[in-house]
Amino acid sequence: MAAQNQKQQKKRPIAAEAFYKSIPVMGGYLILGAGFGILLRSSGYGVLWAAAMSVLIYAGSMQFVGVSLLTGGASVLSALIMTIIVNARHLFYGISMIDRYKKSGRYKPYLIFALTDETYSLLSDGEVPDENSADQYRFLVSLFNQCYWVTGSIIGSLIGNALPFATRGIEFSMTALFIASFTEQWREKKNRPSAAAGIICSVICLLVFGPDRFLIPAMLLITGVLTLMRVFINEESHNPDPYRGDNHNA
Questions:
Q1: Do 202 and 160 have their domain in common?
Q2: pTM of the model
Q3: Hey, how many other C-beta atoms are within 10 angstroms of the C-beta on 116?
Q4: Rounded to whole angstroms, how far apart are CA atoms 250 and 242?
Q5: Residue 202: which residues within 8 A CB-CB, separation 6 or more?
Q6: Most buried of 33, 64, 112, 141 (most Cβ within 10 A)?
Q7: How does pLDDT run across 100-125, given as a tens digit for each residue?
């Protein structure tokens, strides 16, 4: 029976495999995208703006911030700096996916563009249904996820136009998403040191620089601390303590 199920799974088209893989992201992106569309509509920007931002920018948290930048008349330089700060974490995602994406050919530009938090979580395990179609599979997973986000944004904009209501606090939905991601990370013992480092660094910078200026120093400090932690872990793995009981060469 198990062999038969495996054969059926192998016969399933790559598009179907990619769709099934992306289903967990669908619900979250439709809801969060709708929240963005509603917030954008309440700020005076219609459905075309919602669709264009979700297609061309496609950066959930930055799109929420972008609404404030649009309504506040921020300069191009301010928008550029804020975008780098908010999306700095994608640098680390990209580095970890270099080996998988470097030979993806025509799919590479879009795979780089569409590497969001949730897409990374689906593709970072490296599992693909067929090695010969790995690039196409990753492309379709990324595409499905963006389609959910674009669809949610358009729906939210239309709802915000048809059923106007108070949107105060709706931008907290992205904060809630990050809290959920952090909670999931904390549940894994191996991830707790890095999660704790992020909290401690953020609190220190908040106390030192204040709520209006702590973000950039916090990001820099977290990056430095995590880099040192990784170096230390790598050294430990290459130079095990000879007196530890788990050293098989002792």
A1: no
A2: 0.70
A3: 22
A4: 6
A5: 214, 218, 222
A6: 33
A7: 888 888 999 999 999 988 888 888 87
